[in-house]
Every structure is written in structure tokens, then in C-alpha cells.
Amino acid sequence: MRFDRFTIRGQEAVQEAIGVAERQQNQQVEPEHLLAAMLEQKEGIVRPILGKIGANAQTVLADIQAAIEKFPKVSGGQQYFSSRTNTIFQEAQKEAEKMQDEYLSTEHLLLTIAA
After folding, report:
1. How many domains does the chain have?
2. Helix H segments across the chain?
């Protein structure tokens, strides 16, 4: 995946997902880490989108954090993207192409995770 094809917010979300995984001592960066990172973006679009569909972003974040707590923990090592996360990136790229968007954004990631 070419991260230079992500919007700034998308790049920030990916970097923060790695940080979430690292803080939680999870070696694999999972889609849940990515969604948690996007939900924590103060000026991101994910929270407003969830609000528009009637979802409570805080409740979704709490549920995601509970799921992350269940992931295996390891000491040391390098974080890497799980096969599920790589699939999300690939499908989000297809979504961006379908929408004729040049860059992959958090909206594309959210649509793909939701699917």
C-alpha cells in the first residue's frame, strides 16, 4: 500500500492506529485500531458521519476499545498490519477509485470497515 496516496487525515489515522496498537501491546495493527484512531481525530469526518446516521461515537469508541482489549498482547517486537487491515486498505483503494477520488481518505476507510 502506498501511503502517499492517502489524504493527510488518512495518513494520520494510519500512524495513530499503529500508536494505538503499540500502546495496547498488540503486535498486529487491526481494523479496530484504525477505527479507534479515526474516532479520536478531533477534526476528522468519522464522528460527524456516525452522528448523521444516529450512532453515538462515544459508544462505538467504547465498544472498539473493549474489542482491542481482547487482542493478544506481546512485549517488544514491531507492529505490523494484519491481513484484515491489508484487506481494508485494498478495498478502500477500490472504493476511492470507484468514487473517482485521487486519494484514499478516512471516508473510504470507514466505508470499507463498515462493509
Report:
1. 1
2. 8-23, 31-39, 46-52, 57-69, 83-98, 106-114
Bridge partners, 81 (sequence order):
29
Contact 10, 106 (CB under 8 A): yes
Dmax over Cα atoms in the chain, in whole Å?
A: 42
- Determine the distance from the C-alpha atom of residue 41 to the mean position of all C-alpha atoms in its chain, rounded to a whole number: 11
Which residues form the domain of 107? 3-114
Does 21 have pLDDT greater than 80? yes
Banded pLDDT at 42 (limits 50, 70, 90): confident
Separation CA 109–CA 46 (nearest Å): 10
Question: Looking at residue 19, which CATH number applies to its domain?
Answer: 1.10.1780.10
CA atoms within 13 A on the CB side of 10: 21
User: Nearest Cα to 61, choosing from 29, 24, 82, 32?
Assistant: 32
